[in-house]
Amino acid sequence: MYFGAIYLLVIIMSEDTEKTQENETQESSPFETGSITVEKSGHFIHCLTIIGQIEGHFILPSQNKTTKYEHVIPQLVAIEESKDIEGLLIILNTVGGDVEAGLAIAELLSTMNTPTASLVLGGGHSIGVPLAVSCKKSFIVPSATMTVHPVRMNGTVLGVPQTLSYFEKMQDRIVNFIENNARISADEFRKLMMKTGELIMDVGTVLDGEGAVKCGLIDELGGLSDALAFLENVIEVKENAPHGD
Predict the structure, then answer these.
(1) SS3 52
(2) Is 62 a catalytic site residue?
(3) How far apart are CA 72 and CA 75, in angstroms?
(4) What is the mean pLDDT of residues 19-43?
(5) What is the pLDDT of residue 199?
(6) Which of 43, 46, 125, 149 is catalytic?
(7) Tens of pLDDT along 76-100?
(8) How confident is the model at residue 131 (pLDDT cuts 50, 70, 90)?
(9) Which residues on neighbouring strands pair with residue 50, listed in sequence order?
């Protein structure tokens, strides 16, 4: 009799533990994925963070802080198709990473109908630059920096004309994207990429927040409240616009 009572108590406690763990997982999952949906003035705005190194076709070491593009792309599709989410805020603090993966995410962001804004915190380096300019409006805090440099590749590289041609074509894709989504010309951006004297082991330019705005790479100096206010304004204008506009 006692054995049966104890066995029943263990089962009940086990079920309660599983429910508690399930609830904790559900509550923590938005933070584990680096995204969360918040309500501001009656509007639902989704916040997505792109941090660390952008992981593409190759898995990076476990100690690296990464953003996986196969996780980000489905989220962007879901946000675009959602009837509830009215705006998207991208928060960037990235050292760069896989060029093709980063450019793929940037291309998706630039073609979304959902109002978008980007905010550069800490750093928006390398392929983080196209990501920063891909949104409808880009913001950067004064203390943030952005490193602009030519396309680089790790590992063994064959020194043949075909490799140089590949680099040049990849670089052209990035330059054209920047020119089409920012207020800086292709020639000016190439000058930043090829500038000498700033980086010890490479050519390129390091821009602080004010410098990024001054050269036309980023739209405006600002912080979180500025980016959210922009999205709220765009959403309200869109709501009040006559149907068909």
Answers:
(1) strand
(2) no
(3) 5
(4) 59
(5) 85
(6) 149
(7) 999 999 999 999 999 999 999 999 9
(8) very high
(9) 92
CB neighbours of 231 closer than 8 A, spacing ≥ 6? 40, 43, 45, 87, 88, 89, 115, 116, 117
Give the pLDDT of residue 50: 96
Distances (CA, A) of 228 to 31, 109, 113, 138: 19, 17, 17, 11
pLDDT of residue 242: 80
Check 35, 118, 126, 134 and give the catalytic one.
126
At 92, list the tokens: 């960037």
Query: Which residue carries 């989504």 as its tokens?
Result: 181
64: its two tokens: 């690296």
Distances (CA, A) of 159 to 6, 21, 153: 73, 54, 12
143 is catalytic: no
Do residues 79 and 109 touch, judged by C-beta distance below 8 A?
A: no
Please, where are the H alpha helices in the chain? 2-32, 69-81, 99-110, 128-133, 161-181, 186-194, 209-214, 224-240
To 5 degrees, how large is the angle CA 220–CA 223–CA 227? Answer: 70
Enter the tokens of residue 245.
Answer: 């506009």
Any idea what the Cα angle at residue 79 is, between residues 62 and 213, rounded to 5°? Answer: 75
Q: What is the pTM of this model?
A: 0.82
User: Residue 10: what are its φ and ψ, rounded to 5°?
Assistant: -65, -40
Residue listed under structure tokens 């953003």? 67
